[in-house]
Batch of 3 targets.
Target 1
Amino acid sequence: MWRRVKRRFGIAAPRLSVRLHMPWYLRWSMLVPFVIGTLGLAWWAYGSGLELAGFHRSEAEQELVQLRERVEVLGVENENLKSQLVQYERMVQIEQSSNQETAKQLKTLSDENISLQEDLAFFQNLTAVRGKEGELAVHRLKLERDRMPGEYRLRMLLVQGGQRAKEFSGSYQLVATVLEGGQRTTRLYPQDASGNAQFQLGFKYYQRVEKSLQLPPGAELESVQVRIFEQGAREPKLRQNVNLS
């Protein structure tokens, strides 16, 4: 016991140190200005470095504002240009449609003009044809492709000569030469199992005939022979061939 007391309060006892106690708010009041000053110094150094490097914040902000305003102006101009472009496209479409319609009308009028010229030439020669009493002739015989694949159209004008021609009553047949599968075959129109069917005719001076022919896929029409029959006759009165034009 005595040894313990001696060690605690004797010469060998540990030294006692006395320190001045400072409240925390005083410490913070001294530390905060230092931190603020350090941050301000750093910010000033940063700004000075940018200025030395040629970068001015106020000028950059002003340029940024100007660029934003420019972008807005360009956006408005872009929308206006788009609207104008749509209007011009509609105008071009309308004009193209009008041009196409005009071209169609022009082609139709041209075809009608050609047909009228042919009719005029025919009627001018009709008097000479009538000089032969009762003679039957085929004029303007044409064979052309139609719009749909495998369709063909035949046109002809039947004329009976003479000033006092009687009414012609009869019929006609079409014998088509067809190339199918590398072989030539013939087809009779109208198509009938008995082979006796015929297209009827009845006219005094002339009659226009227009007939559409339909072939199966892969078949190619080469030519057609027109056979004209008088009523009750078994042999044709007139035969005439026409090739595909």
Target 2
Amino acid sequence: MDGKTLARIGAIVFVAVAITATAIEMNRKDDRPIDFATRGRPVASQDPLAAELLRCSEIGEAGPRDPGCLRAWAENRRRFLGQAAPPSSPAPGSPTTLFPSAPASADPIRKESAPAGLTAPAMQADPTRPEVR
């Protein structure tokens, strides 16, 4: 046999094997089991946060201005990053400070530490500026 005939026979065998493999793959059943427990349930019954995130994605540009969406995105970030739940808000009667280790006398906002004769400065309006044309 010459080389040309051998190459043709090899090409025919290759094509036949490829067609057979394709036919077998097309007739094979899907190996993945179908989870019927979660397939028919709506998103809202699975996770209320997922339902809120879906609602926020559907409202478009109004999402960043919606307080519910802002809370949902913050909760989603917290869950994604694996952070612990934020502590509950402090009691309304307890004061909050930026630097709790600083002495109370260093806090200029507290009325106890402010001198009695000082008052807050009056707000001044910006002078009007002429329009440049």
Target 3
Amino acid sequence: MTETLDAVLAEVEKELNPQESHSTTVAAKAPAFSQLRPTKAASGKSLDHLYGVRLDAEAVLGRATLSVEEMLDLGIGSVVELNRLVSEPVDLIVQNVRVARGEVVVVNDQFAIRITEVTGASH
């Protein structure tokens, strides 16, 4: 079969629409959009509407890599050695991005972090 795809499609179109034997011309034109202008709310630099958004934050003391066997052997009193020294700062992670580093402190019988360094989002 040496017919082109366009010829086959035209033949199928004729069979489906026998009363329309001529091709239909469709006029195309560029869409017309109204001019966008910034509104007073959009041009302001206020972030007040974001202040109530809740974010997940976590403090990372360190990490450890364990085999399945080592995980299964864990029990009460087991010690897992982390990859960080006691003198090194802990990371404050917000939404999976490190935003700060600091030292662990105790406030009202709860652990807390005293921020010692604020890092950029690219770290």
